[in-house]
Amino acid sequence: MLSQLAQPLLSGTLMGGVYGLIALGLSLVFGVMRVSNFAHGDLLMIAMYISVALWEGFGISPYVSIFGVAIFMFFVGVFIQKAAITPILKSEKERSPLRLILFTVGLSIFLQNLVLMIKGGAPVTATVPLSTQTLPVGDLIVSIPRLLAFVLSIVITVILWFFISKTDTGRAMRAVSQDRETSLLMGINEYKTYAIAFGIGTVLLGLAASMVSTFLYAFPTMGSSYTLRSYVIVALGGIGSIPGAMIGGLVVGIIESISAQFMPASYSEVVIFIIFILVLVIKPSGMFGKERK
Prior knowledge:
Blueprint: H1 2-33, H2 40-58, H3 62-91, H4 98-119, E1 134-137, E2 140-143, H5 144-166, H6 168-178, H7 180-185, H8 190-212, H9 223-237, H10 242-259, H11 265-282
Antiparallel strand pairs: 1-2
């Protein structure tokens, strides 16, 4: 029995690391800004299409273009923040106004239909030479692209934790998150901090997108499922918790992979959401989150 679960456990762990990296951006944005971004998965989709386009059009491997895509996504995030989110926040007293939720839902629909109009509905992927490479480890088969994506996810998580914990900008983000009024009195530029947080969130999506574009397909409507997964992961790990997002991603990846061995793949998401509901009932703040006063 254990030998039968070893391969799905390994595969789920590797994919769970990627899920954690994707959810990390959502956790950061929601933790700092209290913004529910329902276009999170669609921004991942856009970044994947960019990575694939660079490979198909110019022969630039996603492993080479990864930082270029990430930088581009940073400016996309900052633009969205300054052009739309900041004006909405300034015009509303609530931190998560209904207009902002409607905006991110509308942005999600817009991005899906924009890609559908330009590229059509056919799924695309960057089939680089490394895409099909595997590494045998005893009786197990390790996908090299998934392993690289997992390693990058862990490295980025550690770097982000260090940035949030040890730098002035990171401390400013935590200050705004914990007490907005006091942080304003201390001279912290609230909206500049928000722009940096949103930009970092989209950078994380750019990094994840470049890696997964070598072994997953991108298609216009894929964003919705990744947005939902990210919310589940954030709830499991705790809002704003960096290690929580990664561990929550691992939990979701492992559950998804192992449950698929005993039931149809579509049912594995049901298991994930059952656990999601149980966590919300038993510990609403998540594994590593703190109750907000």
